[in-house]
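SEQUENCE WITH STRUCTURE:
===
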Amino acid sequence: MSLKFTIFRFLGVMLTVTALAGCAGTTGGDRILAHEVTGTGPDKVIVLHDWLGDRRNYDDARPYLDMQSFTFAFADLRGYGGSVKMKGMFTSDEAAGDVLRLADRLGWQRFHIVGHSMTGMVVQRVAANAPDRVISVVATTPVAANGMHTDPDTRAFLEGAAKDPAVTAKAIHALTGNRLSDIWAAFKVERAMSSSTEAARLGYLDMFDLEDFHADVDGLKVPITVILGENDLPFFQPDYINSTFGKWYPNLTVVVSPNAGHYVMQETPAFYASAVDAHLKKNMVK
């Protein structure tokens, strides 16, 4: 291992510890997901992260969210961030149950929910399991409720991305259209590897690859906005979203961010926050 990589990894770990330590009241004990609550608005919003990161992935977009109209809870799933010590089965039902327990702990009977990539699948499970509690859904570059069901070569690649930083970097580049620098990829790899356990990454891979609960969301009337990046993979493009989400959700809106790939909140944070804000304000509790 080179001295440069060793120093970079050390700094990444220290930044992770510092960031998580600075979030008051976010411990993941008592089966409650670690979380950070910010904002003072009457409408409540639970925000979930993707496979290769934790709640800090939203840091670039957070300054542009309306903290007076909404209160946001940015949460870490089991095996990630402040919840890194929480073990589990890493299924969509388990994750949905964790979200609902968090809402109960916060005293939020009804709430909006935001997910990204693999948790774009989880938020659909939450909406299906508790349709009376979910006001609306934002799913960013989401896995559909029928799962990915990859071929053997793709599955092997994804397993490699969960274990091997070099393969993770290749996945990051592919998901962003091979447009961004190796420095960007190194930042993303460091966050992925330092903020989650391998067991969690592999467990949630099974979730978003193998699960299929689309029959449970078919016809669900919850308002849902899907936010995509124009440079993402075909699986996360409008044609595929319209062939899946478009069949199941009668109140679907699709928004595409120019000059972004899979990580819209990091690649085009102002655009992303504006799209989330527009969705939330359209669906505020009257």
